[in-house]
Amino acid sequence: MRHPPRSGLLVVGAAVALVGTAIAPVVTASGATPACTVDYSVTSQWDTGFQGGVKITNSRAALSSWSLTFDFAGGQKVSQGWNAKWSQSAATVTAANESWNGSLGSGASVSAGFLASWSGSNAVPTTFKLNGTTCNVDTEPSPTPTDPPPTTGTAPKLHVLGNKLVDADGATRRLLGVNRSGGEFMCVQGYGIFDGPVDDASVKAIADWKANTVRIPLNEECWLGLSNIKPEYAGANYIAAVKDLVAKVEAHGMTPLVELHWNYGQYTGNSAGCSDVHATCQKPMPDAQYSPAFWSSVASTFKDDQAVAFDLFNEPYPDRATSTTAQAWACWKDGGTCPGIGYEVAGMQDLVDAVRGTGAKNLILAGGLAYSNDLSQWLTYKPSDPTGNLVAAFHTYNFNTCASESCWNSTLAPVAAQVPLVAGEIGENTCSHGFIDTAMKWFDDRGLSYLGWTWNTWDCSSGPSLISDYDGTPTSYGVGLRDHLRALNG
Length: 490
Hints:
The protein is of the alpha/beta class. Helix content is about 20%, strand content about 25%. The relative contact order is 0.12.
């Protein structure tokens, strides 16, 4: 959905730890202000890697460019980063400014993040130098990593078999459920992390509709902890909240489907949702600067829990920017410099590679063009997935172009004959359920999956809202999905 009305890194492994700030600045013995201070943080840590960051504060004369150096003592190796040009020679790591953040005034700060590997120990660097000047920091060790909360449910570990989804026992499964919007917009707007409660009672209310899947939209700037997000809603805090919701969803036996909804990159062309460079609206494609790092981090976080599925990007629409359909599909798959899009694009292949590069074998969904409403050339441009665990994603609303059985027969059926197909969003803006009734029957007849938009208490006439209360009270639109799921699943 493109989107929601608002009323009023790399992380790897199941045992990802939210470690927090590892080094805090201190004042020298003489009481003089240090020339510079560096806060070094480990946002998450797992068995073979971690996501870290540095916040550099300059307390001397303004700098027109900056370069931070520090040495790793535990054999750590930086693999990628953001907000700086990261490099490493032997143990020495260098983070140099990008062209757009080189100015660092007196008293000003800049933050940058990175992903790195480690083995044996993940010792905290003890000395930092900014443009050759030593920064004064303390060296208290990081807190001991803790495991994520355990789950008690029986969420299935799904994989692709032909054009079906099957569980570990080989039984055919369908993803049938709802979207839980909020994690994509609340944090970047500065209101919180989720819109409405995400406690156990509210998740149980979803399960009581006999849903078996919850799609959880995310924001890459909030996950990576970029500096424009309030700290209380960013980085470790945001990741912890998402992990907690995932655990609750699984504890009720439902599949968590995490997806990248809003991302960085300025787009002001046709059908632009906003002119902001930040992740405050739906962009036409993922960005090369942050989206691969986001997916490396997310995949690393959940790679040891194959009950979690990944939806690469909410609603691509490069077709609104490019002049030809061929250009749009090429952009969709391979990214790069795409006509009409002013930022470097990460294609679906880049994101599949980012996920699989962590060793994650989790199920991956990839939506097509026209806000995931066009799958006409999805098979032709299908990304390569070494695990064979790739699913086609489709969105359909009563106001979309492909919103009829004839269109579904001509464009969806050929795709569904070869790969699993999941309608990650279905809905209508009529406060009734005539359209989704038709859509659900079409998908049911073919054994396909679908998820209603959205489990939020908004006005169902301004945006498809399934509920009027988080106890599960349906709107006149939501009652159609609720009653249908209960009829299917008892």
